[in-house]
């Protein structure tokens, strides 16, 4: 399980059923028994700063346009991740990182 991969995960505060998530935790922390991620949704709430679109392709496993929910950062035990379905592109990962930093207020001038 690596940063940028898309997995199906079960559980969590905002998930009533297993759903796709993108892992954002750095690979340097692979020994931890938990993983930090953003869930994916197909609903664009017109909140462009909080919903990052990812490419639809065979590499992502997404068959319809999906959005990374950067305001729903979560952590689950590794056993709650059932299968890898793809990975985001390097370009999309950079967009996700920028949105995450903005959401958390890291690096923004105040």
UniProtKB/TrEMBL annotation:
Q: Please name the GO terms that the record assigns under molecular function.
A: DNA binding; RNA endonuclease activity
Q: Which GO terms describe its biological process?
A: mRNA catabolic process; rRNA catabolic process
What the entry lists under InterPro entries is as follows: PemK-like (IPR003477), Plasmid_toxin/cell-grow_inhib (IPR011067)
State the Pfam families in the record. Answer: PemK_toxin
| Protein name stated in the entry | Unannotated protein
């Amino acid at each position: 399980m690596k940063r940028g991969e898309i997995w199906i995960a079960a559980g969590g505060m905002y998930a009533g059923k297993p759903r796709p998530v993108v892992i954002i935790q750095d690979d340097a922390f692979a020994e931890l028994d938990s993983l930090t991620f953003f869930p994916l949704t197909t609903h664009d709430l017109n909140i462009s700063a909080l919903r990052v679109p990812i490419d639809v392709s065979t590499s992502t496993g997404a068959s319809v346009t999906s959005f990374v929910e950067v305001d729903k950062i979560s952590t689950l035990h590794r056993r709650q991740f059932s299968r890898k379905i793809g990975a985001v592109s390097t370009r999309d990962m950079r967009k996700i990182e920028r949105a995450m930093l903005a959401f958390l207020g890291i690096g923004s001038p105040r």
